[in-house]
Specification:
heterodimer; A: 1029 residues; mainly beta; 14-stranded antiparallel β-sheet; eleven-stranded mixed β-sheet; globular; disordered N terminus; B: 426 residues; alpha+beta; 20 helices
């Protein structure tokens, strides 16, 4: 426990020194030629010609002024001194890009985001100085030294996570500045495919104290996280392995796929007892400590620092950053070499259907008793030691420390060795420095090729869902730690990232050519379904896939909805520039095309990106449009999207808003009076962008509420709404008495497609908060977006916002993005996952008609207190509806729960809603079916027009309508929107394809923005918050 | 002084265990030790004594070049007068190794001719300290350094011309250790402390040795850390001859006093409990903590009761926390009673420390303690107690957990008993 006054006094001197050192000479930037030593060449130099010197690739961030470390095998970029909010990389001086040295013509494929050191969990190294200690010209290792102080990492606020557990975070690690200086040497020797990273933490005070030490590793690209022992995926909280483990659990590897194929990364340390925490694409190894115990306060800081001048007044941590060939095994092979582990080789050939096969994953399993969690009584089912991938000749080779292992193999879409639901185990005994052979034979598989055309017979982009069961499901590794944490990872691949939900075995996204190509699929019977979003019919075919052959299916779909005057938009979409998404830009655009979205705003965390070049490259300029956005992602008080935004090419993040609030070096702590931007400041910063902008509060429950470690506990039932969260737990300015702002334009009240989300968020609290705001005259548009980070299990455009538009041509919408933004802001929009609604009001007394469409006012007058509210609904036959709810100046019902904020309990309010008027199909309105395109089977739609007549109105009103299907009355949207189908009663393909009435799943739904009626002739006046008694 | 992280499992275990203690009142834990003089000697190409004539600064303070006026060369080629030592000042708030006018004994090696050094400095011969701060002994007066140099010179001589007679050689080594203990420079004295453990057949001590050792115990010019190390060394070597000297230790530094108490206890001459208990009322909080620790270390229930009260009643939270941590170390059954009360301390860190202490004591009594707290503590702490109960490893069907799941009035507590932590993806 540190004495605050003591630290403050010491820190003043540290910060002063830091600032004084920002005067540079250029002597250390002298560049010489590559070092030439017996092991090869090495260099470090400042990048002065980014075009030729930077490491390129999907996640390349390199600019002039950064530093390149290169030898004859790898190239690694360390970012120049700067501040930027992007992933874990708040400060420069850290590794941002890396690749192997490529042959001419072989493009770079950097897919690594950034590595930041975690000091005492909440702090990071804030480097203020970079010096080339040795440029490598003498044949000795190239050394780049980064020095600086600690500073707050705005990317995360772990104390909020712990508060959500129900108790506060230790004060000694909570936003606490430390009297330390930090030095990191990046050392590259000739001939090595790894960089040695030596970080020294120096206590500069006269008092001893202890710290946690770890890293923030932002993987991010098309690379799968592999943790030693666990395998692929992200164990939420990982546990340590025994110190005596034959193959130590001291590696976090990133194996590549897709556009990163042929490149892998690894983080290697040598500190037993280490564990990790992973979330949202960021892995946090905590060195020498059990993360679970640290999180709950049962373990405290484990690295003591003696008082300055005493032995142990500094600590040096040596880690290695490995650049591999795409396989996980290349990282572990390097580890074995770095740490002299006396490894032997396992090699062999894998046959699939009798022929050598490339791309087969070969994992090695060790003794679970030497794997993670043993010390906590949480031994894993399997101890995944490493994994190789077969080459073009079907061969693999890897190294493991001497011992006994099992080898397993698998490849997507192919039966397992042995034909069972899990792969056969092949035992092997490995002797150090010797080679053991394990050849494997996997049964032959089949393939499926689907082509999709529209009503004109032209190819069309589509989503193809294969309904059925996977005979070789993901091989899982499971663990429960102390009854507190459940982990599930994959032995052969990541089985959690974007796996098809129950009922689907495979999903493909077809581009504008409408052809899936041949996709490997296990032999068996399936139903194939093609879809193209909510305005098109679907088509299906039953297929039988047999081994060693390709089954073909041709499916035709048709537009069945007349959406004239509205375009479909998705304004919350993530791709590869977000740490928690592995979807490439090409995949994202194709997924949007396949889901029939006309217009979307790529909104990666803190990052502004231009997707137009991708659309052009895909030849899809007439099919879809984009406008730049960027999700302003505070860790714990809400996320904000703003579009259309301008890209600043001079900034690594394209000009994303620095919500953390820049501060002098080492002083980004609340204790120095430096805070994160308030919501009002964030919205103002976004609105400062030229032109019309829409600033929406994303998934509004994380702003108004206080669950899932985010939110400001805003009571919208108060006028004006009032936040209850203590400023200290959100790193906000304590002088601001209310963090609510009404300066935003839209509220994202519906995201994703999950039954629980709809029940607890949309209906459970979001509508209540929205209606409370409407009732007090804070009229902001409701929007629906996917918030998709993936493609399959959170799909693009589900739900989506239909926006009134002067143009229906999707290709030109980017040019009228300001207009679309203005229409959203004006409330001319509705959210849907299927039904198309036209919402109008009419008053006979004034002959006025209102509506959400362009050309109609959203406010009409009535002179007799009577108004008719009409919904014209069209819906594809796969999106059944049976009820319409109307909300008119609705009252809300308050409930209060006390939640731990991290600084004591606070009241968190939730407002429930009940519709004021309900219309049921068959009773109040009739649904008819229209065959829209008779030549195309199934090209039909459901139609109805329903009218609610309001009479006797004495006060001005707002009206919102919700159209929906209900369990047991309407069929779920499976497989078009496949989530949350009940497993009970769906054990066969026949069960899955019988309509699934009453078997959960996602039901059709659409909600409108409000229309307004002026009853008293004085203009529309809000009724004031209406609470049910 | 930099401590590279240990890489052997045993050393790691020590480091990790040491890390459990965090507060400024941390109990004595295995401390990092400086390298021995003979190690510095063997790692250096040049060992000189002299005076710092000048310290020049280059590249905005990133690099210092110190000119040493050499008065004595102990190892290596005589630099004949002056030499230049470079120091990379990458961490500007960390004090420089050399200050002008100081007398020094330096263990040196050639400085790497890196591109940085070549770019910043004019051509010339440059040296650097081999082990950073540990390899530069500095003093404001010449005599102190001359004394240190004399010791190093004996090491050099013993290395160059080893005494062939084993008995004489051992006698020389023994004499050197006791001379080191009397040396004015604390680094040399500490080297003597370390050397004690390496002496074969240390006991019996001669009269002169006993006197010298007692004088070392009484030295107040040594830092608290060095004195603590000396007292611990005496105890580990069972030098009961030193009991009177240890009893005579009266320091204003509680850590020194505590180290003396510990050494005396380990030598079977524990100070009177009542006298120490009286220190529980000291106005100096560090003394109160030291007294509580000493009492708790005795493991007697009466002492636990006396010291434990400090965990509940002391006005300073940091004292309460330190005593709570000491209660965990005592692992006494009586400690749980105190810790359960401390679990509702007004200060969160004390409450959490109490929870951690119960967790560290472990076993069935700790699980039962957490269960009681799950029902009886404040609502906020009830949630914490059930998490710690689960973390303590009780089975899902353990009656304690079953009772909480079925009987607890708070749904969140029941949920935690059933499913653990409410973790969310962000």
């Amino acid at each position: 426990m540190l004495d605050a006054a003591f630290i403050r006094d010491n820190l003043a001197a540290v910060k002063a020194n830091c600032v004084n050192r920002n005067v540079r000479t250029d002597v250390d930037l002298v560049v010489t030629e590559y070092g030439q030593g017996p092991g090869g060449t090495t260099l470090v130099k400042e990048v002065t010609s980014a075009a030729t010197e930077c490491v390129k690739g999907p996640l390349s961030r390199c600019r002039n002024g950064d530093y390149l470390l290169a030898n004859d095998r790898i190239r690694v970029v360390v970012q120049s001194i700067q501040r930027n909010i992007l992933n874990v990389g708040q400060y420069g001086g850290q590794i941002i890009d890396a690749d192997l040295v490529r042959a001419p013509g072989d493009p770079d494929r950097d897919s690594f985001e950034e590595w930041a050191s975690a000091i005492n969990i909440e702090n990071a190294a804030h480097y203020t100085d970079l010096t080339i200690i040795n440029d490598g010209s003498d044949g000795q290792p190239a050394i780049l030294r980064a020095t600086g102080v600690d500073d707050l990492l705005d990317f995360v606020n772990p104390s909020s996570v712990v508060a959500d557990f129900g108790f506060p975070f230790p004060a000694s690690a909570n936003d606490a500045d430390l009297p330390i200086e930090i030095q990191t040497d990046y050392i590259l020797e000739p001939g090595r495919n790894w960089l040695r990273v030596e970080t020294t933490v120096q206590n500069v005070s006269a008092a001893p104290f202890s710290i946690f030490f770890g890293e923030y590793l932002g993987g991010s690209g098309q690379i799968e996280t592999f943790q030693a022992g666990y395998g692929f995926g992200e164990p939420l909280v990982g546990a340590s392995c025994p110190a005596s483990a034959t193959s130590p659990c001291n590696v976090i590897a990133y194996g590549a796929f897709g556009e990163a194929a042929g490149l892998s990364y690894g983080y290697v340390h040598n500190i037993p007892g280490s564990s990790s925490f992973s979330t949202a694409g960021v892995t946090v190894p905590l060195l020498g400590s059990e993360t679970i115990l640290a999180l709950i306060g049962a373990a405290t800081q484990n690295f003591p620092l003696a008082a300055l001048g005493n032995p142990g007044d500094s600590l040096t941590f040596t880690r290695h950053f490995v650049v591999g060939d795409g396989s996980v095994s290349s990282i572990f092979d390097a580890r074995n070499e770095i740490q002299y582990l006396g490894a032997g080789t396992v090699e062999g050939t894998v046959l699939v259907g009798g022929s050598p096969a490339a791309g087969v994953r070969v994992s090695v399993l060790g003794n679970p008793a030497q794997g993670p969690g043993v010390a906590l009584g949480a031994m894993m089912a399997r101890n995944v030691v490493t994994q190789a991938v077969t080459d073009a000749a079907g061969n693999y080779s890897l190294t493991v420390p001497g011992g006994s292992y099992n080898v397993v193999a698998g490849v997507e879409g192919t039966p397992y060795q042995g034909g069972g639901s899990s792969p056969a185990l092949n035992p092997v005994s490995v002797v150090p420095f010797q080679t053991a052979s394990v050849d494997l034979a996997i049964p032959a598989t089949g393939a499926l090729e689907v082509t999709v055309t529209d009503e004109n017979g032209d190819p069309i982009a589509a989503r193809v869902s294969v309904v059925g069961f996977d005979s070789s499901p993901g091989f899982a590794n499971t663990q429960t730690i102390l009854g507190l944490i459940n982990n599930r990872t994959g032995v052969l691949r990541d089985i959690g990232e974007d796996s098809p939900p129950f009922g689907l075995t495979q999903v493909s996204f077809l581009g504008p050519d409408g052809d899936s190509g041949a996709v490997a699929l296990e032999p068996g019977s399936y139903q194939v379904v093609a879809s193209h979003g909510s305005e098109f019919s679907i088509a299906s075919a039953n297929v039988t896939v047999t081994a060693s052959s390709t089954t073909s299916a041709s499916l035709q779909i048709a537009r069945v909805i007349d959406s004239t005057g509205f375009i479909s938009g998705d304004f919350h979409v993530h791709s590869i520039d977000s740490p928690d998404s592995k979807v490439t830009r090409v995949e994202r655009v194709v997924s949007m095309l396949a889901e029939g979205v006309d217009f979307f705003t790529p909104s990666d965390h803190e990052s502004r990106q231009d997707f137009n070049p991708t659309i052009v490259a895909l030849g899809a300029t007439g099919l879809i449009s984009v406008a730049t956005s960027g999700e302003i992602t505070t860790f714990d008080y809400g996320h904000f999207n703003a579009w259309p935004m301008t890209i600043d090419p001079t900034k690594v993040n394209g000009g994303g808003i620095d919500h953390g609030g820049a501060a002098p070096d080492g002083q980004d702590f609340p204790s120095y009076g430096n805070y994160g931007l308030t919501p009002a400041q964030i919205v103002a910063a976004a609105h400062a962008d030229p032109g019309t902008d829409t600033v929406q509060i994303n998934h509004v429950h994380s702003f108004f509420g206080m669950g899932g470690n985010s939110g400001l506990a805003i009571d919208t039932g108060l006028t004006p709404p009032q936040s209850a969260i203590p400023s200290s737990v959100r790193r906000l300015d304590p002088l601001v008495s209310n963090y609510f702002t009404d300066t935003f334009d839209a509220l994202e009240i519906w995201i994703e497609s999950s039954r629980s989300g709809l029940a607890s968020n949309f209906f459970g609290r979001n509508l209540g908060d929205w209606f409370n705001l409407l009732n007090q005259g804070i009229v902001r548009s409701g929007v629906a977006n996917s918030d998709t980070h993936r493609r399959i299990n959170t799909q693009a455009g589900a739900p989506r916002t239909m926006v009134a538009s002067p143009s229906d041509a999707p290709g030109g919408l980017g040019g009228i993005a300001d207009t679309l933004s203005g229409n959203v802001n004006a409330g001319r929009a509705f959210g849907t996952n299927g039904p198309m609604v036209r919402f109008t009001t009419s008053a006979a007394s004034t002959s006025e008609t209102g509506g959400l469409e362009l050309g109609l006012p959203t406010l009409i007058n009535t002179s007799d207190g009577a108004v008719d509210v009409t919904l014209e609904i069209q819906s594809p036959i796969w999106a059944e509806f049976d009820r319409i709810d109307f909300y008119v100046n609705s009252a809300t019902t308050l409930s209060v729960a006390q939640k731990e904020s991290g600084a004591g309990l606070v009241d968190v309010t939730t407002y429930a809603v009940t519709p004021d008027y309900v219309l049921d199909a068959g009773v109040d309105f009739t649904i008819s079916t229209t065959d829209v395109v008779p030549s195309v089977p199934g090209a039909e739609r459901l139609e109805t027009t329903a009218t609610l007549s309001l009479t006797g109105l004495t006060d001005d009103v707002w009206i919102v309508a919700i159209v929906r299907g209900r369990d047991g009355v309407s069929r779920p949207l499976f497989p078009v929107i496949p989530n949350d189908l009940a497993t009970a009663g769906n054990g066969t393909l026949a069960n899955l394809t019988d309509g699934n009435l009453g078997q959960n799943g996602i039901l059709a739904m659409a909600f409108t923005n409000p229309l307004f009626v002026d009853v008293d002739g004085g203009g529309w006046t809000a009724p004031g918050v209406q609470l049910t008694p | 002084m930099t401590l590279s992280f240990p890489t052997t499992p045993a050393a790691l275990a020590c480091a990790i265990m040491a890390g459990v203690v965090t507060s400024a009142f941390a109990a004595a834990a295995p401390e990092p030790t400086p390298p021995r003089l003979y190690q510095l000697l063997s790692g250096a190409r040049l060992v000189v004594a002299g005076r710092v004539a000048q310290v020049g600064s280059f590249d905005s303070g990133r690099l210092d070049v110190t000119t040493l006026a050499v008065t004595r060369t102990l190892k290596g080629e005589d630099p004949s007068g002056r030499l230049q030592v470079i120091e990379l000042r990458s961490l500007p708030s960390t004090p420089a190794l050399f200050s002008e006018g100081a007398y020094v004994l330096a263990f040196l090696g050639p400085a790497p001719r890196t591109s940085y050094v070549r770019g910043v400095l004019p051509a010339g011969e440059y040296l650097q300290a081999t082990e950073g701060r540990a390899s530069v002994l500095s003093a404001p007066d010449a005599a102190t350094i001359e004394g240190a140099a004399a010791v190093v010179a004996r090491l050099v001589a013993a290395s160059r011309t080893p005494e062939p007679d084993a008995e004489k050689r051992r006698a020389g080594e023994r004499a050197l250790v006791f001379d080191e203990l009397a040396a004015r420079h604390p680094v040399v004295a500490e080297d003597g402390i370390a050397g004690l453990a390496a002496l074969p057949g240390l006991q019996p001590l001669s009269d002169g040795e006993r006197t010298g050792l007692a004088a070392a115990v009484a030295r107040t010019d040594l830092s608290a850390r060095v004195r603590e190390r000396l007292f611990a060394q005496l105890a580990s070597l069972h030098l009961s001859d030193m009991v009177p000297a240890l009893r005579a230790v009266h320091s204003s530094d509680a850590a020194v006093t505590a180290a003396a108490w510990t050494a005396l206890r380990e030598l079977g001459a524990a100070p009177d409990g009542d006298a120490i208990a009286a220190q529980l009322r000291s106005t100096d909080s560090t003394v109160r903590v030291a007294a509580a620790r000493e009492l708790l270390a005795r493991g007697e229930s009466a002492e636990v009761d006396r010291a434990g009260r400090l965990a509940l009643d002391d006005p300073e939270p940091k004292v309460r926390l330190a005593v709570v941590e000491a209660l965990a170390a005592s692992a006494s059954p009586g400690a749980l009673v105190v810790l359960e009360k401390a679990f509702v301390d007004p200060i969160w860190e004390v409450r959490q420390g109490a929870g951690r202490a119960i967790f560290q004591i472990g076993g069935r009594p700790a699980a039962e303690s957490f269960t009681r707290l799950t029902f009886n503590a404040t609502p906020e702490m009830q949630r914490y107690a059930v998490i710690l109960l689960r973390a303590s490893g009780v089975a899902q069907d353990d009656p304690l957990l079953v009772r909480i799941r079925t009987e607890h009035p708070d749904a969140e507590v029941r949920e935690a008993a059933e499913h653990g932590l409410p973790l969310h993806e962000h």
